[in-house]
């Protein structure tokens, strides 16, 4: 640590204190607000680089600075609504017609790039920044005041002659593309996972316990809306509002434009769509707003969105890239899934390097071959997809890809059963299956062993420390702390996490076994009724079927699984390892799941491999989601299994998110972070 830095930090603290006193105490500031902000930022950055020089009385450590792992709830003064979407020119025009029907005269429109970031509310009192809050559910958000304070585009104090008593401004926090790219380089160097897109990176950077980390992430903010205003000027139009916000020191997107007719508005949408990749930040559409505030008042709101604005969403994005190779991965059940290894390409807001090709027939249908230039498509939250090859760019001697005859991991033959869509590795000892089972066992939806992810499992298997998940329970800190990328501390945390999983509720243990067709809903029903693994094993088929939510298929699957000697041995090994195989008296085995899918509508189509459609529907409903039978614009997700037909086509046509089974499982586990 250079003495120089410590010295500089001391100077900065003294200067900040001094100017604070002039500003708040004497009401006679000696420096501009920008200069003051600059001092504060330099100090934050310096302290971030050298945590050892932080002093308890540093201005960066004032009460209110974010601490603890969660942020306090903030009720918005006025709800933060969302916007209705238009997915085509027709829908945009239909909105224009609705507007015209209500208004007495033709409105003028303002168009704004739809920033793909996080909505933010900033509160100012007597010109001072006092609070920053995320949108949350629109009514209640999170208090991120201290983190937001570090953002360059957020003035600490308002400027100009028209500073209101109270002001709530809304805008979008985002991360510039260049910042995102260098952040990911740094993440990789530090051995940390890359962020998938700038929006997640912005969200992750904002939700730091330590505001200094947020400061180091260089977030940006554009303002586009007023919330509560007390003592502000009399504004007639949105353009006047934006001009006033600029005067106060906020950043307003320079690409905001005004138009007199909706036809021109559509041209601007097309222009933005065409230039979206050269803006330096991610946008996912164009927001169109009625300019006149009086007309806005006439139009009013629906329960969820203003009638005076609409978001024109860009259609799914397509890019071309090189298909380097097609490889086959082996899942927990032995299913062999071909996937595309791609030259990395940024599409639909994420860098795509691999994409599933589902199965043999899909590869044949798309006729994609290693060496091809392929089209990669991704819309919103949807899993990226290779849609086909560019014929003119196909190398001359290329031949259709042939499904490998043998498992890439164990070398045993891959089998495609009569009438089935998928190949399977049927070798029960295949190491790939084995380690996928361990990953599943430890995953969040099962035993939830923190830190035991894919890489860690691979590392332990490679080091010969574990062969199956039950071996986790005989690991000791001494045995693992010498491994690369694991110090004494992480080793201890991991052992503690493994130990903690010994007393997981019975339903989690059942899920962790990976019995085909037994997801959390069936597992909870079984656990609630039988309260121990032994009683489940001893139950007859009829007794199992008598349980609400358990059908023949599940009952047979359960019995078949426990009858398999290696599975029975695995269960005994877990028992010896101290894993609880029964529910303690008084424990409720039917935890209500978090309503993570509330408000989302699903349509199920095609054949899923690990669950029937009824089971999938039960899992969605258990989390507060709805299942519908036909696809419309209101559909949140279409879950497409094998042989999905017209519903999938319809979803693609409407730009509705499509999930394959793996993505669906991920959504069930995490609840998904829905995009704006
Ligand atoms: S205006 C009453 N303007 O889009 C609605 N929103 O889908 C006020 N967004 O939550 C929002 N760019 O996070 C508005 N120029 C823009 C925007 C924008 C991005 C986001 C915002 C909002 C979401 C609604």
Characterization of the model:
The chain has 24 helices and 22 strands. Residues 63-69 have low confidence and may be disordered. It has 5 domains: 1-61, Helix Hairpins (Orthogonal Bundle); 73-313, 2-Layer Sandwich (D-amino Acid Aminotransferase, Chain A, domain 1), CATH 3.30.470; 316-426, Beta Barrel (OB fold (Dihydrolipoamide Acetyltransferase, E2P)), CATH 2.40.50; 431-576, DNA polymerase, domain 1 (Orthogonal Bundle); 601-670, BRCT domain (Rossmann fold). Strands 12, 13, 14, 15, 16, 17 and 18 form a 7-stranded antiparallel beta sheet that branches. A 5-stranded mixed beta sheet has the order 2-11-10-3-9. 36% of the residues are buried. The longest helix is centred in the N-terminal third of the chain and has 23 residues, at 3-25. Helices cover 37% and strands 20% of the residues. The chain is of the alpha+beta class and 676 residues long. The structure holds 2-(butylsulfanyl)adenosine. 2-(butylsulfanyl)adenosine (IVH) binds at residues 81-83, 112, 114-115, 119, 135, 172, 224-225, 287, 306, 311, 676.
Q: Helical stretch count?
A: 24
- Overall structural class, as computed from helix and strand content, comes to alpha+beta
Strand content: 15-25%
Helical fraction equals: 25-40%
Q: Can you identify the CATH class of the largest domain?
A: Alpha Beta
Overall average pLDDT: 88
* Beta strands, count: 22
Bound molecules: 2-(butylsulfanyl)adenosine
Largest sheet: 7 strands, antiparallel
Give the overall shape, derived from the CA principal axes.
globular
- When the domains are counted, the total is 5
Show unreliable segments. 63-69
CATH architecture of the largest domain: 2-Layer Sandwich
> What distance lies between the first and last C-alpha atoms, to the nearest angstrom?
43 Å
Q: How would you classify the quaternary structure?
A: single chain
Gyration radius (Cα, Å) is 28 Å
